[in-house]
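Sequence design from tokenized structure. All designs in this work follow the same two-part layout: the structure record, then the generated sequence. An example of the structure record is given first.
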């Protein structure tokens, strides 16, 4: 778990530090990476997270309902984050930095929480999954957080006109995922919270992952025309998720 915490911190801090040393950032340079990461995250949610949820023994209808709640909750958060979690840059955004950061911190906390070892069963029972890490989920989150960190830092520097303030807020964003992981680990291994509520929480997170990944797909092809390069990158991302599921 400590390694996961370090990786989560690094993937959010290091890209931001690169932007703090540069004067220009363009999301155009990341367009194919975003498509690959979105396809990977979508596929991993479909073939790993959601099957694990439905193998938990909870009522399937309720699980589907909580996945829907997570989907629309992320849509609400996106209204305040301006799509920064997708790696999108809106330098002239009118959303206050405080609201933007709060939305990103909530989102980051949720995605960190899904990494708790006690959940990822690889299609065995939840009880048998203790101490099983899920590097394949971590990989998807890392690929997702890198462009988010780049876009967030560029936006903060532009709006705040201060690299020191931008770094402080970037640090808050960076620690939110590790805090989510540590909180999730604590509650999943204690008697303070029923396992049923832990499963519900993960269903909400799975829904948010679906919203993020599908939004990346839609925005990468706004004219609804099949771009074979983007489509090929999407297949590679989904294929990487399938391969990771089979071998990790």
């Amino acid at each position: 778990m400590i390694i996961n915490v370090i990786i989560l911190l690094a993937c959010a801090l290091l890209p931001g530090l690169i932007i703090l040393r540069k004067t220009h950032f363009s999301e155009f340079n990341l367009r194919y990476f975003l498509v690959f990461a979105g396809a990977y995250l979508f596929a991993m949610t479909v073939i790993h997270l959601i099957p694990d949820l439905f193998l938990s023994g909870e009522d399937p209808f309720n699980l589907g309902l909580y996945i829907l709640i997570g989907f629309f909750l992320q849509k609400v958060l996106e209204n305040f984050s301006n799509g920064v979690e997708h790696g999108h840059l809106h330098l002239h955004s009118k959303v206050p930095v405080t609201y933007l950061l709060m939305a990103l911190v909530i989102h980051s906390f949720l995605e960190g929480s899904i990494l708790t070892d006690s959940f990822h069963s690889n299609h065995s029972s939840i009880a048998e999954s203790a101490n099983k890490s899920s590097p394949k989920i971590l990989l998807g989150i890392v690929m997702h957080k890198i462009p988010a960190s780049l876009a967030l830092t560029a936006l903060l520097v532009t709006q705040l006109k201060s690299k020191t303030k931008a770094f402080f807020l970037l640090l808050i964003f960076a620690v939110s995922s590790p805090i989510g992981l540590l909180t999730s680990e604590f509650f999943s291994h204690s008697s303070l919270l029923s396992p049923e509520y832990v499963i519900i929480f993960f269903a909400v997170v799975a829904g948010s992952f679906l919203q993020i990944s599908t939004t990346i797909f839609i925005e990468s092809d706004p004219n609804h025309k099949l771009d074979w390069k983007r489509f090929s990158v999407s297949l590679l991302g989904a294929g990487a998720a399938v391969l990771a599921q089979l071998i990790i």
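The chain has one domain: 2-21+32-247. We note this feature because it recurs in several other targets discussed in the main text.
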